[in-house]
TrEMBL record:
Residue ranges annotated for the HTH luxR-type domain, each copy included: 21-91
Database matches in InterPro entries: Sig_transdc_resp-reg_C-effctor, Tscrpt_reg_LuxR_C, WH-like_DNA-bd_sf
Keywords, ordered alphabetically: DNA-binding, Transcription, Transcription regulation
Stored SMART domains: HTH_LUXR (SM00421)
Pfam families linked to this entry: GerE (PF00196)
Protein name, UniProt field: LuxR C-terminal-related transcriptional regulator
Regions crossing the membrane: none
Region (Disordered) residue spans: 1-20
């Protein structure tokens, strides 16, 4: 078996099973998860605030703290797209829920 990439740059084939990648998960509170899930499903921050009966500033605070917690474990979540990817990786939300 060769160890060099093929002509297209693909790694060589091995019979070894693929190793699942593990990620450090931040310790999000139940309320942070609830706010994140609402917001990721396409709701505006204002709609999230109204649905959860909290102030818009509180929604923003939760999202800021979620981003900070992801940064602490070395996983960027500075944009909504990045937060979506992290939530999918961590099982917080599924594609079917979006």
């Amino acid at each position: 078996m060769t160890t060099a990439p093929d002509a297209l740059g693909h790694p060589p084939h091995t019979d070894e099973p693929a190793v699942a990648r593990t990620y450090s998960k931040p310790a999000l509170s139940a309320r942070e998860i609830e706010v994140l899930r609402h917001w990721l499903r396409g709701d505006s921050k204002l709609a999230v605030a109204a649905d959860l009966h909290i102030a818009l500033g509180t929604v923003n605070t939760h999202l800021t703290r979620i981003r900070e917690k992801y940064a602490l474990v070395g996983r960027d979540a500075s944009t909504k797209t990045a937060l979506l990817v992290r939530a999918l990786q961590d099982g917080i939300i599924t594609i079917a829920e979006l």
